[in-house]
Design brief:
The chain has a domain of 209 residues: Alpha-Beta Barrel (TIM Barrel), CATH 3.20.20.30. It is α/β, with parallel strands linked by helices. 45% of the residues lie in helices and 17% in strands.
Length: 327
């Protein structure tokens, strides 16, 4: 098994240009990685470019770059730039993203997501090794592209995976999987699929873990329901949780949501679902819960602190650190 890696999602709240000291301190606190995300705020690469200079010991990862919103060559260029800035400590996570981000926000048809991600992985493998690529893939064609800068060490490529096909792709053609919005017990099931299909090779399994070190349970449940609803009504995540077996638990929520009863739909999310998908409680309770993900086959965490109840995100990051905060 790969060694355990403890990561934090960046950027942290606040102006990006003012986070140099905090990012550097993440390394001092024992975090090994920082991972970016990309939806409607910062892009995936810029925070990592800054972190590469602010904290030279941290590994950097994208979780994730959507496969549709940049052309294949631009993804390769961006990845090569960051891999050259931080040799040996960058991991490129790609995935289909969702119809909301791709189609509603970026006006790009969200079609054939499995094939699009597969094709991008195959193209990136060749391009990041410095090969000249002229190829017809199922979802795009590339003619005569060669990277002008070839990173000294091609970055590992990870695939954001929810269900069977993507998990198989992560296992067979990528260096691992990135998981999102799942419980520790779900992680055990998913990790087993990746490892069984990985042909005996060690695969990295990154889990984005949503965490709120706030012992006020009722506040976390109330605000956590909103966060859960925001994701689980996106079609790809609804299908994922039906596949995981939460269809009956969430049936009433989905029915009320579809009928326009937003308040009623939130109340219909069982507390058990929030408990499963959002780590919460005292910092010690959160640490123990995070450990369950690693016990379930996860090799790398990317904590996303949720500020439910108005908690301070930076203080929360310190309270959850692999090394106890002593200042």
């Amino acid at each position: 098994m790969p060694e355990r890696r403890d990561g934090m999602t960046v950027p942290l709240p606040g102006p990006l240009h003012q986070q140099a000291e905090q990012v550097a301190e993440l390394a001092a606190l024992g975090y090994t990685d920082v991972w970016s995300s990309e939806s409607n705020a910062n892009d995936a690469f810029t925070p990592l470019v800054l972190a590469s200079q602010w904290a030279p010991s941290l590994r950097l990862g994208t979780a994730i770059v959507p496969a549709y919103t940049r052309g294949p060559a631009l993804v390769a260029q961006s990845a090569a730039t960051l891999a050259s800035l931080a040799p040996g400590r960058f991991a490129l996570g790609v995935g289909s993203s969702s119809d909301v981000i791709v189609e509603r926000w970026n006006a790009i048809p969200f079609e054939n997501p499995y094939r699009r991600v597969r094709d991008l992985v195959r193209f990136l493998r060749a391009a990041l090794e410095g090969q000249k690529v002229s190829a017809d893939y199922d979802t795009f064609s590339v003619r005569g592209f060669r990277l002008g800068i070839v990173p000294p060490e091609p970055p590992p490529i990870l695939v954001a995976a929810l269900r069977g096909q993507m998990l198989a792709l992560a296992a067979s053609q990528a260096d691992g999987a990135i998981l999102n919005w799942l419980s520790a017990s779900d992680a055990a099931r998913v990790s087993e699929i990746v490892n069984k299909r990985g042909s005996g090779r060690d695969k990295e399994i990154v889990a984005r873990i949503f965490v709120c070190p706030n012992p006020d349970r009722q506040t976390v449940i109330a605000q956590g329901r909103r966060a859960v609803a925001a994701y689980l009504n996106v079609p790809v995540y609804r299908a994922f949780h039906e596949w995981l077996g939460r269809g009956d638990l969430l049936a009433e929520h989905w029915q009320r949501w579809a009928a326009g009863d937003r308040a009623g739909s939130l109340e219909a999310i069982p507390e058990q679902v929030v408990d499963d998908l959002i780590v919460h409680g005292t910092p010690d309770e959160c640490r123990a819960h995070i450990d369950r993900y690693f016990d379930s086959g996860v090799t790398t965490s990317s904590l996303q602190v949720m500020a439910f109840g108005g908690i301070d995100v930076w203080e929360a990051a310190k309270s959850l650190a692999p090394r106890p905060y002593s200042r």
